[in-house]
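in:
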């Protein structure tokens, strides 16, 4: 039986139909993944508001959020538990988005703020403010913000050789991270034990300091930065095609790369300033999001949602699922999750074809 020979017009029509079908399947999967992540984040948020010394039902939580309960439930939800939850949401979204930006623009899965020194720079500045400057509260957060930004500028300057490559930026970041870690060790060894405990608690990554002022400050920063990320998302997507193709489509590669790195530094710095360096969230949020989508495209929204799920879920575990005498900051739980995941990522990575 002879095979059917298609005309050029028929082959073009078949190829176009296949492309449209592939795009529909990718959009359907992207929408499904986003909806599932939103549902999981919402369920975790309600659970976080229900649990505690004074347990509430889901109906009481929703009533308090709607403002219909002015009694004990309303006070507990709105004044005691909601600031901590919102801080976790904002921190998770900022770290997840920062990790996705760094890993996409530097094309390196290890390029996350807690690997390339941004978090360590913020931590070193905060520890110096606590132990050497005797500062607390907002001043510690501002110091952390300045430290993270300074490390970002230093990395860009060190990595620049007529252009910036991801490997050079990451290697320079690892070196800077060691320097910052040494500075932290110096301050800790020269300080009083009680003061060192305060600094160590902050460095672990915790949501315990949440209040409405801190939430409002971080929310303003995130609201300013996220639309800027949306504006550069198209340029970032074109950079994934290569500098030459991105340039032919009207993108200035080095300018776009610099803006994306600056936004990643800013998001990581404000999140660290608010809650300390919550470990591994920025590193694992984007790979998890991309695996869920399975199309290799940018996953900025999904990475932010995975970050929210990780931080809020880890805080629920840290507060309510561990025995009372084992209660730990959220950064300990994310570290316990992220360490094995990183090992699994290394073991399961496929070797490149020669």
């Amino acid at each position: 039986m002879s095979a059917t020979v298609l005309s050029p017009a028929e082959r073009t029509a078949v190829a176009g139909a296949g492309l449209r079908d592939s795009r529909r399947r990718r959009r359907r999967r992207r929408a499904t993944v986003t909806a599932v992540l939103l549902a999981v984040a919402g369920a975790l948020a309600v659970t976080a508001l229900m649990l505690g010394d004074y347990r509430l039902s889901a109906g009481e939580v929703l009533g308090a959020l709607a403002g219909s309960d002015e009694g004990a439930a309303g006070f507990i939800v709105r004044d005691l538990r909601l600031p901590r939850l919102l801080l976790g949401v904002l921190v998770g979204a900022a770290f997840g988005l920062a990790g996705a930006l760094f890993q996409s623009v530097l094309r390196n899965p290890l390029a996350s703020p807690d690997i390339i020194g941004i978090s360590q720079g913020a931590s070193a500045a905060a520890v110096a403010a606590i132990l050497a400057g005797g500062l607390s509260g907002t001043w510690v957060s501002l110091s952390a913000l300045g430290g993270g930004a300074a490390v970002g500028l230093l990395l860009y300057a060190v990595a620049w050789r007529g252009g910036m490559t991801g490997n050079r930026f990451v290697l320079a970041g690892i070196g800077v991270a060691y320097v910052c870690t040494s500075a932290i060790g110096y301050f800790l060894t020269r300080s009083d034990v009680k003061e060192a405990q305060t600094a160590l608690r902050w460095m672990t990554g915790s949501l315990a300091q949440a209040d409405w002022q801190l939430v409002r400050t971080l929310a303003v920063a995130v609201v300013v930065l996220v639309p800027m990320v949306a504006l550069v998302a198209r340029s970032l997507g074109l950079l994934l095609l290569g500098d030459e193709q991105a340039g032919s489509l009207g993108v200035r590669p080095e300018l776009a790369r610099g803006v994306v790195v600056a936004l990643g530094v800013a998001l990581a710095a404000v999140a660290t300033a608010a809650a300390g360096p919550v470990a591994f969230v920025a590193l694992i949020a984007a790979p998890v999001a991309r695996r869920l989508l399975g199309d290799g495209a940018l996953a900025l929204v999904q990475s932010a949602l995975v970050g929210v799920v990780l931080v809020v879920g880890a805080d629920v575990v840290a507060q309510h699922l561990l025995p009372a005498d084992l209660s730990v900051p959220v950064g300990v739980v994310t570290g316990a999750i992220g360490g094995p995941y990183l090992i699994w990522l290394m073991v399961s990575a496929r070797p490149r074809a020669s």
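note: The two ends are 40 Å apart (CA to CA).
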